[in-house]
């Protein structure tokens, strides 16, 4: 895990439509959605309303009436990890899915329509990290960012950044911006000169039981207080709060083991 590098949009409502390649939604699939809703409601102040049911029971999380994330039931026949999954915007999910396959990735779910809200697919990159693709219709995606309880950034932890960065650039048209450092393997992915996601290569430091994975950062008002709240609610802390050039950050898991990160941006 490295420092958070910003977000596609810091304050206010989301744009009318996300540019292709921009992270536009995050979704958590768990075995116990009721427990997950209680955890995140207490942690972030989320409220919930029903969402598309094509993949099973699913709710959208709201902050002050603005949609920020989704939580659904992970059924036994869905061979997906219990994890927060970022979705990247696409103008044509079927074409993007074909590009994923032609570039060495896989598509495990879809493409399929979701109650008129849009069209989605879930795939994995050549290293095995799972991500989603979203073609918006009625549901544009995340409606707010830059406020406590909303997603701020998505970062891929993998073995090495160069090869997998080329995969995402080929699929979504990103501009790659490698970190110039002898001791840090990091690539920032940008859309229209705007940083939207990061790839951190950790070599043999990657946990074999976890494998390559995406981590979503959520904005909080106070990382240290939120960490205490995570523990009180039955979650775990994987990396204690520490200061970085981009704010104070920590890494945690919810009671079912889904990883997420917390970021308190400098005032």
Automatic annotation (TrEMBL):
Domain of life: Bacteria
PROSITE patterns: VOC
InterPro entries in the record: Anthracycline_SecMetBiosynth, Glyas_Bleomycin-R_OHBP_Dase, Glyoxalase_6, VOC_core
Gene3D superfamilies, sorted: 2,3-Dihydroxybiphenyl 1,2-Dioxygenase, domain 1
Any matching Pfam family: Glyoxalase_6
Signal peptide boundaries: none
PANTHER family: CONSERVED PROTEIN, GLYOXALASE-RELATED
Name recorded for this polypeptide: VOC family protein
Organism expressing this protein natively: Streptomyces chlorus
Classification lineage: Bacteria, Bacillati, Actinomycetota, Actinomycetes, Kitasatosporales
